[in-house]
Design a protein that fits this description.
Length: 700
C-alpha cells in the first residue's frame, strides 16, 4: 500500500492528555517522543496484516523428523512445519514425477502462481498473486516445490500480505482455485469494538487548519482512537450505513487499516444513485470536496501505484487484488455517466487515474487540472486547492474537468498549437516551397511530409528533373536529401548533380560542346557540397533492399543529417516479395502507407519514381497516372502525381522541351492540376521555364 500525503500544514503530535503543535522542523528533527514511531508501529502490529498469521514459515530450525503427511483436500492454510517440506506420496504416481509436477503446476497456476520457471527442490521467488508484491512489485512469494514434484508450499514475505499455504498434486479434485485460495474471513466490526471516540477539540482544530469543518467531520463520522497514550485519527469506511473497515492515520502520516476487512471506497454511500462521481486519492481530499459542495465523492482506500502496470491486459476481476474496492461497487460505477478522476497531480496520482480509467472505461472518465498555488508549483490535490485557493477554486477545478484522453481519439483542440503555427506560418515551408521554376509556382510546391509520385515513359527525364528540383530546393531553402537511386552509378549521379549545381559540364567531350568545363577548384568545392547535401542509401551487395530497409536508413539520415527530402528511384528496383495470400494491390497500398507515415512523421518530402506499364499502341502522349504498373493505389494514395514527358521528334517541336504534367494535387495550398513547360539544357542538365507553354504536336 502506497500512501502519499504531504500536506504542508504544521504537523501535530496527538496524545490523549494533550495535543502538541510543533513546527515542521522540530517535528522532524527533534521529536520529544523518540520512541513514538516505534510505539505506534508495535501497536499497529495488531492491525496491519490482511491475513491471519500462519506459522508455516516461522524461524524454527529445520525439523529432522520425517515429514508429516499432508491433508488430502489439497490446501493447507496453517501447517505447523518449520519450513515447507517435500511430501512423500505413496501411490503409483510416485513413479511418474513429471506427471505429478505438471498437475501440481496447473493447480498453482489456477491460483495465480506463475510456475513456468520453477524447479522442484528449490525455493523460487515469485510475484505474489494476492498482493502483487505491493507498490514495488517485489517478488515476495517464496514457493518451494518438493523434489518429486508432488507438493508445494508457499509464503509471501510481505508483512502486509503474508499469504501462505501448501498443496499436493494428487490431493482432492483439480479445481485448485477453490481449494487453494486462502479462505479469508472478513471480520464484522463495530465502532464499540474498535473503541472509536469522538474527535477531541485539538483534532477538530487540526482539521479546521486544513479547512475541513466540524460539520463535514461529523457527517463522515471521522473519529479518533487511543493507543495507550497516543491518539490517531480514525476514518470509518461505511457501506449501506454499516461499518465495513476503518483506516487510521497517525502523527507521522502513517496509515493502516483494520485487517481482514473488505476493501471499499471511502464515502461509498455518498455516490449511490449519482450520475456524476468524483474519485480522489485520500480521505482528506474526499472531505475537502465536501467543503466545495461535492458530496458525490469517494476516496480510494490504498493510495496510488508508483506507475501504470506494464501489462496491457487487465487481470481478471478475482485476481485484480489492488482494485477490489472498484469491483466491489461496480454496479454504482456502471450506473454513473461521468466519473471525474481527481487523483493527485504527481506521477503516481496520474498512474492511479490511468488504472482507474482502464477499469471504469475511459469513455466516461474525466480528469482535472490542478491549478497553480505559486509561480512554480501546482496544487497537487483537492485539499491543497481548498487550503491555498479556497472552495470556489476547487469547485472550478471540478467544473472545468476535461474528457479523459483515449489513445487514438483526439479533438482539434489537441492540435491548436500546430494549427496556430500553420496559420501564422511560423514553421516555414508549410504552404510549400517553390520548385524554383516560376511557371510551376501555381501548380506544384513542395510541402514537407507529402508524397509525390513521379512517372513517365522510360528515358523521359524523370530522374534528371528530380535532381534539378533537389538542386533548386537546396539553393532556395538549404534542404538536404537522402537518395535511394539504385539505377544510378554513384559517380554518374555525382556528375549530374555537380553539373546542375555548378551550371557547367563535368566533361567537354561529346556533350560539353564549347561551354567551359568545371575547374578543379569548382569540382573540389562541388564535392564538399555533395557531401554536405546528400546522403546515399545504397545496397552494396547483390540483394535488393525492401522498403522498410530504405525507410529505416532514411530515418537515420533525417536524425543524423537533418535531411528534408527522400528520393526513391525507381519503385521496381526494390524488393517486392509479398506473402502468397497478398495481392500486388494490397502490397502497394501497404508500402505506400509506410512511406507516407515516414514522410509525415519526419516532415520529410518523398519523391517516389514509378514506371508506367507497357503501353500498347502508344502514340507518344504522356502516360496517365493510372498507367503506373502495379496498382491504382499509386495515384490514390499519393499527395501529388507528376508525369514528366518530353518531345523526341524534332518535327513536332523543340526536343529540349520538357512537359511537367501535374496530374494530382491533394492539397490546394500546394498547387493545382495543370501543365508547365521547361527547357532542358543538355550540357549542364539544368531546366529553365519555357516561354512556349504548348506541348509539341504529336504525330498520330
Ligand atoms: N528534354 C530532354 N532532351 C534531351 N535529353 C534529355 C531530356 N531530358 C532528359 N534527357 C536525357 O535522357 C536521359 C535519361 O534521363 P533520365 O534518366 O532522367 O530519364 P528517366 O525517365 O529517369 O529514365 P528511366 O525511365 O529509364 O529511369 C539522360 O541522358 C538525360 O540527359
Amino acid at each position: 500500500m502506497r500512501l502519499r500525503y504531504s500536506h504542508t500544514l504544521r504537523p501535530l503530535l496527538f496524545t490523549s492528555s494533550k495535543l502538541t503543535t510543533m513546527t515542521t522542523q522540530t517535528f522532524f528533527h527533534s521529536s520529544p517522543f523518540p520512541n513514538l514511531k516505534n510505539t505506534l508501529f508495535s501497536q499497529r502490529h495488531r492491525f496491519p496484516c490482511h491475513r491471519p498469521f500462519f506459522t508455516v514459515f516461522c524461524s524454527k530450525p529445520i525439523s529432522r523428523n520425517p515429514p508429516l503427511p499432508l491433508r488430502t483436500n489439497g490446501y493447507h492454510g496453517a501447517s505447523q512445519a518449520s519450513i515447507p517440506r517435500p511430501v512423500q506420496l505413496e501411490s503409483p504416481v510416485e513413479k511418474n514425477m513429471e506427471l505429478q509436477l505438471n498437475i501440481l503446476k496447473k493447480k498453482l497456476e489456477a491460483i495465480g502462481v506463475e510456475t513456468e520457471m520453477c524447479e522442484p527442490g528449490q525455493y523460487n521467488h515469485l510475484l505474489c498473486p494476492e498482493c502483487l508484491g505491493g507498490d514495488q512489485e517485489e517478488r515476495s512469494l517464496s514457493l518451494y516445490i518438493a523434489p518429486d514434484g508432488g507438493s508445494a508450499a508457499w509464503n509471501c514475505f510481505r508483512g502486509k500480505c503474508g499469504w501462505k499455504g501448501s498443496t499436493q498434486a494428487f490431493a482432492g479434485s483439480n479445481s485448485a482455485r477453490t481449494q487453494l485460495a486462502p479462505v479469508k474471513k472478513i471480520r464484522k466490526i463495530t465502532e464499540e469494538e474498535l473503541e472509536l471516540e469522538p474527535l477531541c477539540d485539538e483534532l477538530v482544530t487540526y482539521f479546521s487548519e486544513r479547512l475541513i469543518s466540524k460539520q463535514t467531520l461529523e457527517r463522515n463520522g471521522v473519529k479518533q482512537r487511543k493507543y495507550d497514550d497516543q491518539i490517531v485519527i480514525a476514518f470509518p469506511y461505511h457501506q449501506n450505513g454499516g461499518l465495513i473497515s476503518c483506516k487510521y492515520r497517525d502523527i507521522n502520516k502513517m496509515f493502516w487499516q483494520e485487517a481482514n476487512t473488505e476493501k471499499i471506497f471511502y464515502g461509498l454511500d455518498d455516490i449511490v444513485g449519482h450520475n456524476d462521481i468524483i474519485i480522489v486519492e485520500g480521505e482528506m481530499d474526499k472531505l475537502a470536496m465536501e467543503e466545495a459542495g461535492f458530496f458525490n465523492c469517494v476516496s480510494v482506500p490504498d493510495g496510488a501505484p508508483p506507475s501504470v502496470s506494464s501489462k496491457e491486459e487487465l487481470p481478471p476481476q478475482d485476481k485484480d487484488k489492488k482494485y477490489q474496492y472498484l469491483w466491489n461497487c461496480k454496479d454504482e460505477l456502471k450506473k454513473a455517466t461521468r466519473v471525474i478522476l481527481a487523483t493527485d497531480g504527481d506521477p503516481p496520482g496520474q498512474a492511479l487515474a490511468e488504472e482507474l480509467a482502464r477499469r471504469i472505461g475511459k469513455e466516461k472518465c474525466w480528469r482535472v487540472r490542478w491549478p497553480r498555488k505559486s509561480r512554480s508549483d501546482n496544487c497537487k490535490d483537492a485539499n491543497e486547492v481548498l487550503m491555498y485557493l479556497g472552495p470556489d477554486a476547487l469547485k472550478e477545478v471540478i467544473e472545468n474537468a476535461e474528457l479523459y484522453p483515449i489513445r487514438g481519439l483526439f479533438n482539434f483542440r489537441d492540435y491548436f498549437d500546430e494549427i496556430d503555427a500553420y496559420y501564422h506560418r511560423t514553421l516555414g515551408y508549410d504552404i510549400g516551397i517553390s520548385t524554383g521554376w516560376n511557371n510551376l509556382n501555381d501548380l506544384y510546391n513542395v510541402v514537407p511530409g507529402e508524397l509525390t509520385i513521379v512517372t513517365g515513359v522510360p528515358n523521359s527525364g524523370k530522374s534528371e528533373w528530380i535532381d534539378a528540383l533537389l538542386c533548386n530546393l537546396n539553393e532556395i531553402a538549404g534542404w538536404k536529401f537522402a537518395l535511394c537511386s539504385m539505377e544510378n552509378k554513384v559517380r554518374e549521379h555525382a556528375r549530374k548533380l555537380l553539373e546542375k549545381h555548378l551550371k557547367k559540364p563535368f566533361f567537354n567531350e561529346r556533350y560539353g560542346e564549347s561551354v567551359e568545363r568545371m575547374s578543379v577548384e569548382e569540382f573540389e568545392q562541388g564535392k564538399l557540397w555533395l557531401s554536405d547535401t546528400f546522403s546515399l542509401i545504397r545496397c552494396e551487395d547483390n540483394s535488393l533492399p525492401n522498403i522498410s530497409w530504405v525507410l529505416d536508413l532514411a530515418k537515420a539520415a533525417v536524425l543524423r543529417h537533418g535531411v528534408r527530402g527522400l528520393v526513391i528511384d525507381p519503385y521496381n528496383e526494390l524488393d517486392h516479395q509479398r506473402p502468397p495470400n497478398q495481392t500486388e494491390t494490397e502490397y502497394v497500398s501497404q508500402m505506400l502507407t509506410l512511406i507516407k507515415r515516414f514522410a509525415q512523421h519526419h516532415g520529410c518530402h518523398v519523391w517516389f519514381v514509378a514506371h508506367p506499364r507497357q503501353l500498347h499502341n502508344w502514340v507518344g502522349d504522356p502516360p496517365n497516372l493510372y498507367d503506373i504498373s502495379g496498382s491504382a493505389h499509386f495515384i490514390n494514395k499519393c499527395d501529388n502525381g507528376i508525369v514528366i514527358h518530353r518531345n523526341r521528334d524534332p518535327e513536332s517541336g523543340p526536343i529540349d522541351q520538357v512537359q511537367v504534367c501535374v496530374r494530382k494535387v491533394r492539397n490546394k495550398v500546394a498547387g493545382t492540376i495543370g501543365e508547365a513547360m521547361l527547357l532542358y539544357n543538355r550540357v549542364t542538365g539544368e531546366y529553365t521555364p519555357s516561354d512556349n507553354n504548348r506541348p509539341a504536336d504529336r504525330k498520330r
